[in-house]
Structure formats: C-alpha cells, structure tokens
Design a protein that fits this description.
33% of the residues lie in helices and 21% in strands. The protein is an alpha/beta fold and 339 residues long. The chain has one domain: Rossmann fold. The strands form two sheets. Strands 4-3-6-5-7-8-9-10-13-11-12 form an eleven-stranded mixed beta sheet, with helices on both faces. The protein has a two-stranded antiparallel ribbon with strand order 1-2. Strand 5, helix 4 and strand 6 form a beta-alpha-beta unit. Helix 6 packs across helix 7. The radius of gyration is 21 Å and the shape is globular.
C-alpha cells in the first residue's frame, strides 16, 4: 500500500510539472493582452520601458510621412562586400554609378526599433547572402524614425517608412529594369511590419517578404501589420511569441507560411526574451548558408506546443525566390550555430 502511495505521488508531481511547463492557453492568436508598461529592447539588447498608452510624436510622424527620402539605402555586392554605396531616391546617377546589378536578385534588410545600419543583424544576414550567391544587398537604415524613444511613435510611423521603401524599389525597377519578382524583403521585429508595408505599396508583386519575429505590442489587431498579401510569398519566423506578457513577438499567424521555431515561445540556450527575439535573424542567416532547418506542417496549436506535427515538410528561411508554402509549421533547432 505504501509503495502504491509513493507511485501515485510521483505520478501526480510529474503531471503537475508537465502542466506548469506547457502554457494552458495553446492558441496562437491575437487574443494576448499587454499591460500598459512593457520592456522592449533596442538594437544592442538594452531594455527600455515602454508606455503603450503614451502620446505619439505627431510632429515627427508628419515629417516622416511627407519625406520618405529620410530612409538611407546602403548597397553591398560581391564587388563591395563590406563598404557600402549609398543609393538615393530619385537620383538616377546614384544607381548608375553604383555596383547595382539588375540581373541578379535584390535583398533588402530592415532593422527594428532603436536600431540602425550598425546593428548586428545587418552584417550577419548580409554576409550570409553574399557568400551564398551573387546578389544586391540593400540595408535600409530608417533610424530617423527608429531612433525615437517613443515606441508608439515608431509603430505609427512604420507604414509610412514602408511605403517609402516601396516607392524607392519602384524607382530602382523603373531606372534599371530590375524585376520586382527578383526582390526579397527581410525585416526584423518592427522591421517585419515595415517590409510588409513596402510589399503592399508594390501591389504584392515582390517575390518574397520574410518577417523575422514580427513585433507584437500594438500590432495584434493592427491592419498595417505584415500579411499574406504583401508579396507572392510571405513567410514568418516566430521565436518569442510567448503567452506571457514578456513575449516580444506577435505569436500569431501573419503569413502564407508561419514557422513556430521550437514551439515559437523560447529558444534553446536562451534565458531572456531578447535572446529569443534575436534568434529569429540568427536562424534565418544560418538557413541562407545551409538551408537545413525543416518545419513540419501542424494542424493545431496543440501540435505546435507538444511537438507533434505530422504534416508536409517545408524548409524554413533560405534565399529561394521561387519558394512557396502555406500553413503553420514547427521547426526544431539545436542550441549552437548553425542550429
């Protein structure tokens, strides 16, 4: 009898532990609510307190809306892999005098809030792309808005910056003949919604939009967030969409194919939301090099949570402009590069 009691107690403890380790709400949806004050990181991983009810800076928003040329476009190619050339909106000479090649793909990289061209994701993704193939890499520096200490202001200005990027790419298309379906827009956090708006400005005709852990706060029901119509193929890589208030990513479906990496909530070797969030661009860069992370289709949120997806396989990330897939996927990684 005593032995039976001990066995039952062990089973009870194990069940309780398992229940506490898995979120009770396994629905990856927009229903998550944020408190008024949250912590959100800048490009260097420093946390900032954000008041989600703060009044935006409307003077800055007006300037951003009126002048999309505030964006800076930095071109890197295999002829100048580490030293940028600046391309200027409506300046034909800046295009013709650069190494821009309309006959190879163009990839745009957009950083997140309180970041700039120096942020770590830019050289990491740039170098992976240039080592993989002959390609034009354009790093978008939108620090005029992104450097605003008001997160609310940055959120409200993202659509205008995205439209400015779309207008710039249309200018490049007009000047050089580079086809829109040879363009791939990659954005991280707020930058994910930004490139979605750029694709929308171009009528969804760019080949790909890749949204790296799209930002969650103030985006759950935001009609300007990245969506499946923004490109021929839209992919999202979710790494910090936790059900707790600390999750920085949106944690819900926004694309044709949504990858919930390791369940989409926390990542191996990470103890903080910043680490989880930044894992998205690290994983993407690794897939450009190795194309080795494969997701399995999931029919429910519970399958994602319990790692029980049995659907068709789809490679996550990579640089394939003709890639296509749809649905939810769970992809698993290891703790260390290349994951």
């Amino acid at each position: 009898m005593r032995k039976m009691r001990v066995t039952l107690l062990c089973l009870f403890v194990a069940a309780a532990y398992t229940a506490s380790a898995v979120p009770l709400n396994s629905d990856f949806s927009e229903d998550r609510e944020y408190p008024r004050f949250i912590e959100f990181p800048d490009g260097d991983g420093v946390m900032h307190t954000v008041d989600l009810e703060a009044e935006p800076d409307y003077e800055l928003l007006d300037e951003i809306s009126r002048n999309p040329a505030n964006n800076v476009y930095l071109l890197y190619t295999r002829r100048n892999p580490t030293s940028s050339q600046t391309l200027v909106m409506n300046d034909i000479a800046s295009i013709y005098n650069s190494f821009y090649n309309p006959h190879v793909p163009t990839v745009v990289i957009a950083h997140g809030w309180l970041s700039n061209q120096e942020s770590d994701l830019n050289p990491t993704i740039r170098d992976a792309l240039l080592h993989k193939e002959d390609v034009n890499v354009i790093i978008l520096d939108w620090k005029k808005l992104a450097s605003s200490l008001s997160y609310n202001t940055a959120v409200k200005g993202v659509p205008a910056v995205g439209r400015g990027l779309g207008q710039f790419l249309n200018f490049v298309h007009y000047v050089t003949g580079a086809p829109l379906n040879s363009m791939h827009l990659v954005g991280f956090s707020l930058g994910a919604h930004l490139v979605g708006n750029a694709g929308r400005e171009l009528g969804g005709r760019v080949a790909r939009v890749t949204a790296l852990d799209p930002a969650g706060p103030l985006w759950n029901y935001n009609s300007n967030r990245v969506n499946p119509e923004d490109a021929i193929y839209v992919e999202a890589i979710h790494t910090d969409g936790g059900y707790t208030i600390g999750g920085l990513g949106i944690g819900s479906d926004v694309a044709n194919a949504d990858f919930y990496v390791n369940g989409g909530i926390s990542q191996p070797g990470c103890l903080t939301n910043i680490c989880n969030h930044n894992s998205a661009w690290r994983y993407f860069a690794a897939t450009v090099t190795y194309n080795h992370i494969v997701g399995k289709g999931c029919s429910s949120s519970w399958q994602i949570t319990w790692d029980n997806c049995k659907g068709e396989e789809l490679h996550m990330g990579n640089n394939d402009l003709k890639k296509y897939g749809s649905g939810r996927f769970r992809a698993n990684t290891s703790r260390r590069y290349p994951y």
